[in-house]
Protein 1
Amino acid sequence: MTEYVFGVDVGGTTVKMGLFSNEGELLEKWEIPTDKREKGKNILNDIAASIESKINEKGLDRSGIAGIGMGLPGPVTDDGIVRRCVNLGWGEINAEKELSKLTGLTVKSGNDANVAALGELWQGAGAGYKSIIMITLGTGVGGGIIIDGKIVYGSHGSGGEIGHFPSADDETEPCGCGNFGCLEQYASATGVVRLAGGLLRKGRKSVLKEEGLTAKAVFDAAKEGDETALEVLDMFGERLGKALAAGAIFVDPQAFIFGGGVSNAGSIVTDTVKKYYEKYAFHSVKGTDFRLARLGSDAGIYGGAMLILGINT
Amino acid sequence: MTEYVFGVDVGGTTVKMGLFSNEGELLEKWEIPTDKREKGKNILNDIAASIESKINEKGLDRSGIAGIGMGLPGPVTDDGIVRRCVNLGWGEINAEKELSKLTGLTVKSGNDANVAALGELWQGAGAGYKSIIMITLGTGVGGGIIIDGKIVYGSHGSGGEIGHFPSADDETEPCGCGNFGCLEQYASATGVVRLAGGLLRKGRKSVLKEEGLTAKAVFDAAKEGDETALEVLDMFGERLGKALAAGAIFVDPQAFIFGGGVSNAGSIVTDTVKKYYEKYAFHSVKGTDFRLARLGSDAGIYGGAMLILGINT
């Protein structure tokens, strides 16, 4: 019988790590820097060494460790193939197999946003649900889809890539991906600043100043009733609400869960998105639950642990 | 050991039925009329009687029958709850349980478009794939999503309701569902006729006449190079291609499969849709396979059989 599991969330700056009991209790968490030198070739070695040292420090019995679940910042297929992780410098690699070789432990991986969604489903805002769409509103827009408790990996590892939902017909500025009108251009922190900047340059009155503008400042101003900020909030909410109405006719989840920095603005965000979701949703999927994420930046390590416990239960 | 399975596809006019071997060979198919009188209360009785009579006619051993898989024209959840089938006159009902009581056999049901997708996956254009989106282009636009060989039912039974994808920001005519700009308004047979009618009323030159216009006539004219018909084909293809690009960032299937009357126009349809899919798709999901459905109106009974054989394997 196994007693422990490791959850690992690999980011561009740090690798977050957690040691969990096999019932999902987070016993300890720590992080190590992400060494991106030489195309990130040391990253998996560093993770293996950190886990090895934790095993020794705690005096854990290796046969009692169920495995390591790992979120990675790029597309990951369900057989563990990573196409490319731009943020880590990686090309195509099977990081699961590599880390398994290095540690002698079972390893299962997934895209970081998908793994975070699994974490929220398990012990966060999604507890009690089986099928959710999680939307992470940060510098970009990430997403993860869980159906019947399982991650939708996608055939190219791109399940839940919601940031690149084709969201507008008339956008003239390109998204970072090269397309025009991606959801990320409206619903990310960067997108919110872009929208506000556009209105300010048109001479719209506001307490906001274009220099040093942040999404937080826009949402704070909206809470104070600033009309330009409210207009940005509305544009943001309409694009995101409509994209989720689209998501609902594809997979019809029980709930939408909002994470990431932008969602810290709280109910002003979810209320606006929900208003437009209800406007655009097909009648049979109206009324789907909206929830704010609860695990913050720990969602990834929880999800990692669940990847292993899920495949063993 | 079981030897046989029944597949049933309940439509608004007829109920199609098939007797299959447990290896999926269609041994015999037939149909009975759909009795919609008195809110469709006789439909399940009629199906049970027809199956009973087939069992007797063939002298089948009841213990050798794995069950009955059934597609229904409305939202169906994975526990068999039908919210409403407008075409049958049904309100909320558990048709699975009812038919199981009437026949003494295991019954599993699903939405007809979802079940047809499962049929195509199993023995049609989807053979060899595990994850597909099937699009049925008929009077309306239906859809079914299969991930890892399983139907995405959706929490309200509305998984794959692609016809109501919010497809345009600027539509002024309402869809039958009450929303504006649903995919069905552009990509169904009705939608194609509507688009062509709009151009003809603007005085556009064409061999097409508005009276008695059909989608087939529009696609035939497009094949002959009629400019107005080509413009309609282009509008149709752009809306559908963009909707599938959206579907790809949600579930990232291995293939899109096109069924229904409109798809009989053949490669002119899929080529145009693919052109716009490739334009709007996120880079990681470009190149997804496009296939024409192969089972025609038998897809539903094949999928019904698969519902049963799938849950027993």
Note: The mean pLDDT of chain A is 95.
Protein 2
Amino acid sequence: MSDKPVSDHRASDISRRRLIGTAGAAGAAGLVLGATGGATVYAAAGPGAAPDGKALTSVGSTAVPFHGAHQAGITTPLQARGHLVAFDLAPGAGRKEAAALLRRWSEAARRMTAGRPPADAGGDTGVALDAGPSSLTVTFGFGRTFFGRTGLDARRPAALDPLPDFSSDHLDPRRSDGDLWVQIGADDALVAFHALRAIQKEAGEAARVRWQMNGFNRSPGATAHPMTTRNLMGQIDGTGNPKPSESDFDRRVFVPADGGAEGPEWMAGGSYAVVRRIRMLLDDWEKLARGDQEKVIGRRKSDGAPLTGGTETTELDLDKAGPDGKPVIPANAHARISAPEQNGGAAMLRRPFSYHDGIGADGTPDAGLLFICWQADPLRGFVPVQRKLDRGDALSPFVRHEASGLFAVPGGARDGEYVGQRLLEG
Amino acid sequence: MSDKPVSDHRASDISRRRLIGTAGAAGAAGLVLGATGGATVYAAAGPGAAPDGKALTSVGSTAVPFHGAHQAGITTPLQARGHLVAFDLAPGAGRKEAAALLRRWSEAARRMTAGRPPADAGGDTGVALDAGPSSLTVTFGFGRTFFGRTGLDARRPAALDPLPDFSSDHLDPRRSDGDLWVQIGADDALVAFHALRAIQKEAGEAARVRWQMNGFNRSPGATAHPMTTRNLMGQIDGTGNPKPSESDFDRRVFVPADGGAEGPEWMAGGSYAVVRRIRMLLDDWEKLARGDQEKVIGRRKSDGAPLTGGTETTELDLDKAGPDGKPVIPANAHARISAPEQNGGAAMLRRPFSYHDGIGADGTPDAGLLFICWQADPLRGFVPVQRKLDRGDALSPFVRHEASGLFAVPGGARDGEYVGQRLLEG
Ligand code: HEM
Ligand code: HEM
């Protein structure tokens, strides 16, 4: 089954987008314009019946399979609502408790992503009732500290070594790191909240919430532009992402099936997530004229096309000079210095949520990007690019990195398996 | 043009719901099963063309007219995303500056609700680009303190007298009240955020943000149950609301066209909004067994039907006793003691957003209801009901009122008029 996002074509409406996903999953090659992470549509056109017999429309009835080579929530199309939550193992909890926890979590996720309550026994909050799975995904990751607490130091991937410090960091340790990390995404805010509470409840005595953040993207059907989203600076965001159609997509994003050089073996099919809460200094940003904002990125705001012309998908012409002899895309433009060609091929799959937590203590909007990027190895993805950006990104004066995390996200669970089983029982 | 919500029928999918609204607006009586606040659909089935020529799907392309007898955002179907923001006039700003501000705000709202940028001159953030209006509404109200600051005390409605204290109040004054109040709702989070920033920008030097809150409801299409939403306790919420089909709906919700006894005249067609940020003590609530949760409200969680049987729309049988001789719907059940029959006919239109701001300082979820209720007179709506609830609501141990506001929301602006003009220039 294909497990790629619809990031390389434009579907002109959401139900067509979802339908294409189904067709793709069913293997009807002629229709595979771009698959949607293997989404299943219970009822694509108009109301239909979900497993519980309730009539649903296509947004609610779309389900993203829990099982697969990779965990869901990495190449799944951006969802309208997201929750990030990090946990620390409780004092006294070790490998055994962690294994039981991952087993409970996987089971709850498997059920909820199919539109069912998290457990057979009662006690469900009911918050998701009436809606279908709404493209719910629940993705689990391990932080560096998890391995010491569970006596698994020997299996800790080198890729989890702490990120270097960057000069622009203003990191709040209380909202950074964590033994365990869960990313929840859904196209309905109540479905997402329901999953968050269920995951918290299943943590039981084994783990305690360390930090928790909320985010959002466009609602399905609000735009005919499903390929990329806009961020709160108003830019189209996601254009330069690696495309599933590119031959090196898997190699860049996922640890190879045999563990590969990146290893360890239990990470086969997995990926490393770098999570940064990046505040946008919107009061300052919005004072810039649109032309100056566009020079900061190197792309037009209206349609995301490079300042050197064309459409959103046209390559940047980094050598082109303007009448004044200066490069049209400035030397410090964000899209120039973050591009793989400028970073020895370093690339990552950015899959963010925007966040907005009202007004901050300083009176400015507490809003920005829950930047999440996925790569087979952070040292060939986030790290070199952020190092470069840190030295000379025109965007830097308008953003502030306020929290950071790095998590090893194992491959998808096979039928009957739980996420992380190969680590915890291997 | 009809200006009623779809709260008295079940549309089985969102585009049918929207379509019915359009038909209603066009006056095709046979199709008026329930109008949607006069929503206009640029393209109901599949992609179409919005005013800017972009293809849009039905969620994005739905527009709620700004002009009308009443402001939009009162009987408009619940939107997926909401922002509440209160402003205080800046020191030195008086009636003249307030009139200019309401003129600017109305113009920005009129444009944005039609899917256009807030002003012709540049400087738009671009955050809403690619999406249509997405059912955006922007609703303006005046707080009690507005009238003293603008020398308009003589026109201050008696209905704005401070709400009484309630024993369960834990109100934070920094997040309560305000000279001016703006409610923003949209089915897309970026469209809503865009409108919030535009409204803040247009405030210019005339007014400063006092507080700001974010909320949400179901996404369009996530459920086939458009009549009511669920709240974060998992209950169907909105069932007992006055129905537009009832003969006293207008009288209960809106100040009469001639000002009526409620007066003053400038409030003709207006309504009073009571806004309460009500924290839910979810860690405690979720420990209750489902049966006990249902007794707290008097309705079933699964489908909202009364514990005395039937379906969601069946009347509560308040006299029915169980085998133990006790009333099936307990004496302190929330739906019993808040019902109009128990409160001398007092009724209000509840139109809330849920909120979730992560984890609070006390480690429990900072989540609950942005309770907003609309009535022609708070003394015949919110006040008597909340007095009763305050004395004996079974829900009280699970909620905490953390902020409060009361605002006079004038009638809708006529073409060429701005909201509040009859107050400020009358
Ligand atoms: C709030 C912070 C940020 C904003 C608003 C932002 C915005 C953008 C925008 C508008 C683009 C151009 C469109 C696109 O290709 O998506 C872009 C490209 C990109 N950004 Fe960022 N970005 C931010 C932070 C970062 C960070 C922290 C990294 C990694 C360290 C990063 C890496 C990239 C990469 C790799 C590209 C694609 C370049 C290419 O190959 O064309 N960005 N970003
Ligand atoms: C977080 C706080 C609250 C929650 C969770 C809540 C929940 C509910 C629920 C589940 C119902 C039954 C379904 C329905 O008719 O909508 C209901 C009914 C009602 N509630 Fe609340 N409520 C809250 C606060 C309030 C407040 C503060 C008031 C007014 C002072 C209020 C007034 C009403 C009214 C008038 C009804 C309808 C009763 C009827 O006529 O059947 N509620 N509420």
Note: Residues 79-426 of chain B form one domain.
